[in-house]
Every structure is written in C-alpha cells, then in structure tokens.
Design a protein that fits this description.
Layout (H helix, E strand, L loop, with lengths): L3 H10 L14 E2 L12 E4 L6 E2 L2 E2 L3 H10 L3 E6 L6 H10 L9 E3 H7 L6 E4 L13 E3 L4 H6 L2 E4 L7 H13 L4 E3 L5 E4 L2 E4 L1 H10 L5 E3 L5 H9 L9 E5 L2 H9 L4 E5 L10 H8 L5 E3 L3
Parallel strand pairs: 1-16, 2-5, 2-14, 5-6, 7-8, 7-9, 9-10, 10-13, 14-15, 15-16
Antiparallel strand pairs: 3-4, 11-12
Length: 294
Amino acid sequence: MDTVATIFDRYEAVRHRLPPASTPDATAQIASLHDIAAQADAFVFDAYGVLNIGEAGIPGAAQRLRELRANGHQIRILSNAASYTHAGAVAKFCKLEMGVRDHEIITSRDATLSHLEQRLWGCIAAPQDDLSDIPAPTRRLVDDPASYDQVEGFLFLSTEVWSLERQALLEASLLARPRPLVIANADLVAPREHGFSLEPGYFGHLLADRGIPDIRFFGKPFRAVYDMIEASLPGIAPERIVMCGDTLHTDILGAAALDWRTVLVERDGLFSGEDTCAYFRQAGLFPTWRLSRI
C-alpha cells in the first residue's frame, strides 16, 4: 500500500462493500471554485490534500473559504479523522487560521459516536486520546489478550500505535466470539508528508475479508457523515451541494451516492502527480469537475 496504484487497486477490491454511486460519463476541468460558484449553495471540503497538508494550510485555501462565505455560500469541512475529538478538530483549523466555526466541521468520529450503542467498548485509540467524549463505557486495548475477550464490542479510532500483532489479537478474539467492530475512519490510507499511513478502514477490510461479521464503517464514503452534513444544511437541494476532495473512492463516491456534485482536487493529495483521468476511466467514477487547488 505504498503507491497510488496499489491503494487504488485495494479500494477497487473492496468496492462491493462501498455504497453504489452513479456519476457523469466525463469530468470537466476548472481553474478554481469561482468557476462553479453560481451552481452551488454549499461547498463541503475534505481536509488533507484540499485545505491542509499536515499542520500547514495549502496556499490560497483560507482565502478561498473567506471569499465563498462572503458570497453567501455555506461552508462545511467533512473529515475522516477520528483520532481526536470534535473540539480537537475545531482547534486544529483555528491554528490553520481558516476561520472555521464549530458547526462547520463534521468528522467520522462525530458520526460514529452518534450511532454508538451502550455496551463496554474496547477502544483502539491514540495514546493522547482520553476517550472522554465516548458516550459509553470503554477499555483501552493494547497487548493483553484477555482484555480483547472481555469487552462487548470494538471501537477502532486510530492506528497510531496499532501493529500486526495487535491486529492478530483482535482477529482471534472476533473469530472466537463475534461482536460489533466499529471502524470510525473508513479510509484505507492517509497521505502524509513522507508517504502513506494505514488507517482503520484498511484493517477493518482485512477482517471483513476473513468473513468476520458485523463490521460497521463510518466516515466517507459511508452515508452517516453525509446525512449529518445535509441535516446541517436545511433547505439546500443535494445537487446544490458540492463536495471537494482528493480521493476518488471516499470523497467523490460517497457524495455522488447522495446526488451531490463533486470536485476532485489533484495537486496536493492522494493523486498528486498522477494522471487522474486514467483512474476515473478504470473505476468508472467521474467527478463532476476537477482542478489543481480550490
């Protein structure tokens, strides 16, 4: 999973688990979001590769958000980051000086927690995550096999300290006694400054390949996060919502499944330096528009 081609192939291999979506037969090139502003009432942005790279904002992104707001557009950020709380997500974008308000951010963690049942959840989380926003009992999972067997379900928030050895403990426990596994970030990978990191969705699909039942994916391209965006935009028709993202099988597919229009942002994210049109044709997934930066 270290090249765009292998990542793309893996998304195609698990495509039967992703929502069905209908897209146009071709995509149009635009220079900036100003070119399509009259066709939208709301713009929804993925974060990494669209607004920021790591802790740095992408040049021009903050200015574009200000311009769209000034023109009367609604702005939302839709992120699959599940390793920090909603407040943490807002704080991150405050540091990026993008003027993002609390209600403008929805994350896969938000969607996950809104659907979480009352049971003892074994949590796979970053060490700095205090789990204080989880509305149910929790137990942090690390290397003790007994702790995997004692919990009533699994909540996968972060791969920061995950390992193949811990994955084996999780798989063995689920094979011995099936329980719900909630994947709070459906991404297979995330582009980083120095390559790609494996994300919770990657490990969730490995377990699904093993025939483990009751695996619940949250985040793009799955519907719950998009429903939360639509609920925050009452009165706006789906075709007047434009999703801007850097990933074909998450940002674009999930939005197209709800009849939103879509923009693939090419320069800084997953497809940086790639011939995106070749991937569109191979997948049969065409964003409405494509551009370099927003």
